[in-house]
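QA checklist item 7 of 12: single-chain prediction sanity check.
[x] sequence parsed
[x] length recorded as 229
[x] structure emitted
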Amino acid sequence: MVKDTLKIVSEIFVVALFLLVLSLCLFLAIIATIGTEAIRNTYNLYQEDFWFAVKIYFCFACIVEMIVHEYGHYYFQRKFNVAVTIFRIGIFSLFKRKTKTGTDFILGIPILAAESRALGELEDREKEKNNSQSFYYIRRHPKERLIISLGGIGLTLSVCVVLLASFYIQSEFLNVEIPLYLYIVVYFAVATQISNLIPLKIGKFGTDAWVAIESVRDWVRFKKPSTLS
């Protein structure tokens, strides 16, 4: 009973820490963009149409970010011949279809949840360790798992960099005024990726950073396939 209580408390603490880091990153990004003086002068932050635009673009950006991030994982999973059992966007299941590769494509309510789950990645890790298409296949070089784990963050940050570069070019050379809410949604995407670099594990799920560190550790210990029995 005490063990279960401590587990629940620790998980709540982890989620709170994640949200705190996310909020801090987003706040610092906004300050860097508009400055503290603009914040003191409210920068039209109290206008209803401003926050309506933020909400609309925020919802759209969340969906796009989840798809881009998970596709980054999916691309490298397939590149390294790892079987993908589930590709899910959102919570619950509104639409489900099995692809030719055997992946269950699931579309739900597109908020706060997405995954590209590889074979042998969770509770089936030990069972599938001898399967060549398993994420934790015993002969798979850990550098492949490292690339897969960071693929989502890498692709999302790359897209964000391209967007911010386009904002800069438009504002500096084309005299196009970029609305603040566009900066906010892009910085939110960046902040979520930074938060995902916190090495945490909740139950059977670990952040990308957790898997990456685990992969680096295994890389150090890895034996070449020819030496394995």
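[x] summary fact logged: The two ends are 43 Å apart (CA to CA).
[ ] second reviewer sign-off
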